[in-house]
Prior knowledge:
The chain is an alpha+beta fold. It has helices spanning 7-25, 30-46, 105-108, 127-133, 144-148, and strands at 52-58, 62-69, 77-85, 90-99, 111-115, 118-122, 140-143, 154-155.
Amino acid sequence: xxxxxxxxxxxxxxxxxxxxxxxxxxxxxxxxxxxxxxxxxxxxxxxxxxxxxxxxxxxxxxxxxxxxxxxxxxxxxxxxxxxxxxxxxxxxxxxxxxxxxxxxxxxxxxxxxxxxxxxxxxxxxxxxxxxxxxxxxxxxxxxxxxxxxxxxxxxxxxxx
Length: 160
């Protein structure tokens, strides 16, 4: 029966099934069930375009956040960077990498920084991380102006 469903319907079916299983496992934990209900609502609202938080760096002058999406519309998983210039209030986000597997985002984002208008994302420096990151060109650099000019840009944004 499941194999006859369209791809989007399969995704919804699997997400609902996993969430039901997690709810059953945590049925005695009211706090965990509250979190699961929040996740369920987010998954239903955003589907495969749900942005999952990975890392954040905040200074007096900027906020830099890294997210990822797991196979949006059955395409490759992507890493997303959101930059907010606190002085101007301008914000933007852009995809910065196609991921071989969604879990690669964690070893890829060891340190994040902004220097001279350029975001630099350096991978973690461990042997285990290097196994995942060797397929990527690192460190990753993105100009802040490119992020601010992206189609996702807007002033005074904070929707996460």
